[in-house]
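request received
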Amino acid sequence: MGIVVPLNPDKEQKPSVEALIRLTKPGMGQVNDLILKMAGANVDMIPEIADYLISSGGKRLRPMLTLAAADMCGYEGDGHVKLAACVEFMHTATLLHDDVVDESDMRRGKKSARMVWGNQASVLVGDYLLGQSFRMMVEVGSLEALDILSTASSVIAEGEVMQLVAAKNTATTEDEYLEVIRAKTAALFSAAAEVGPVLAKAPQAAKSAFRSYGTNLGLAFQLIDDALDYGGSAADLGKDIGDDLREGKITLPVVLSYRRGSDADRAFFDRVLMEGDVQDGDLETAIATMKQLDALKDTVERASHYGAVAKDALAAFPDSNMKKSLLETVDFCIYRGH
Amino acid sequence: MGIVVPLNPDKEQKPSVEALIRLTKPGMGQVNDLILKMAGANVDMIPEIADYLISSGGKRLRPMLTLAAADMCGYEGDGHVKLAACVEFMHTATLLHDDVVDESDMRRGKKSARMVWGNQASVLVGDYLLGQSFRMMVEVGSLEALDILSTASSVIAEGEVMQLVAAKNTATTEDEYLEVIRAKTAALFSAAAEVGPVLAKAPQAAKSAFRSYGTNLGLAFQLIDDALDYGGSAADLGKDIGDDLREGKITLPVVLSYRRGSDADRAFFDRVLMEGDVQDGDLETAIATMKQLDALKDTVERASHYGAVAKDALAAFPDSNMKKSLLETVDFCIYRGH
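response:
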């Protein structure tokens, strides 16, 4: 009688971040409190915008990486909570500025902040969050962590400029594109993970391992995001599919399709992405072309490659629930793309 | 025979920053080299924009303050050169973002960067310069200087948001306005000056003195700038007079005129600044009203007050050419407004 619930359902379940969320829950509670406190300001508009973005349902993967990495390296202080909040502030500042730069109307299924408060406030509140982020880092007092996070901050901005320059250029190569996402996305994942062992004063090998885990997870994450923009469901992603096409963004599915396709395919992508002449049915055409040329499948394939590198980066660490959750997080990121 | 040149022309000359420029010249040469090096990037657009702004003829008052303060406190290392470059980068990043927020077409008599490269690049290159600025600070390795500069960074952004919220609000009080400029302008002058004694490991009294000098010089500088926007010549300022009026910016001349004026005067400022309905002849009307109500004269008067406080802040330091040049710099800033 009754339903048989498997005691160890792992193998039958889809990969998920639930384990990571559960294991970092106490620390993330403190991170959230700190975020709310540090988003406060003498001007009401700042916490309003910060709350809007921060409570808008991102998974907070980056700060969880900081907590998990510090934990796996035996860190016992509270600096990891502050650095995790820094990482989330840096990410939020980037989102605010990105939406202005991309002229995005939506973000995670809600109106973007710039549509609610305007471009001006989005630029300035982004600057404020970045400033607060640096103040928190300085409080922690680790010059090594400061070096890692401040370097990430300028690398991210450099990556965004690279993307802006590459924008609408359908001749972008796969390597050039990888250089962009290595800077604009992977650098923050990498820094978020590396500061954990840095705080724990772990050996160089541990720092390098987490740096590599973060970089490769970030690359995989971004590539899957790119694929989802042409194939995911709006409900899953929380954003409309086809945004990248409409914004003229060159991502890996486009890079692959452009190289593999016919002259007619190239003419299509040139019209839509370079000239910005987007017509009804273009998204469907793009998706059909990408499927026919295996561009979406191979984008996920490339992501799996980086995912595998990320997992191997942690191979030398002894088994633990935290390690297991970080490995599963990689699978989860890849799985979203299937 | 011949022309008699007075040997000590100080009393007969207009106050100038030439002495400060001369005394900080060797250090500023290194600052300029470092600025060019750190503005370099893997994307050509970044140094292009940075050079455009950095070579566009600002006086570089802020980095000179850092060098002068370090020198007066007997500092002998080279960290002051790096921190001076940081301060200039922070300032340049703020200019880039300000022009986007204010939708300014001109900056120091040239097209603003956003008019040449667009808003998108201005936002992102500003972020990049801020990131590079933090990297240089971290290299210097003084946590106390990092604390001062990172706090300034978030205070500046907070001040900009305050200004955005106060924008077009003609009912802004003088105290509210002072709070805005204390954050958006004086905080960087203050930090620029304070990190000098910090690097030199000078006693707390010296740090406080330079902090106070910077803050009050910054307030005076901004108030004179505000007055000049209604009375200076475009040639001197390198920007068109009347910018603040056209952009609906509330500055002290407006605050004073609005309070002192008649109902008709208030209706005028409400139409122009709150409603943004700027008509031909409005600038002339505004200037005439401000003159009649002594609003420009008293803005300069207020600036003189802060200038006097700035000079007294350095009173306890022994006489030196550097000290004299810093005192003259205060007079120079005020003198511009007459």
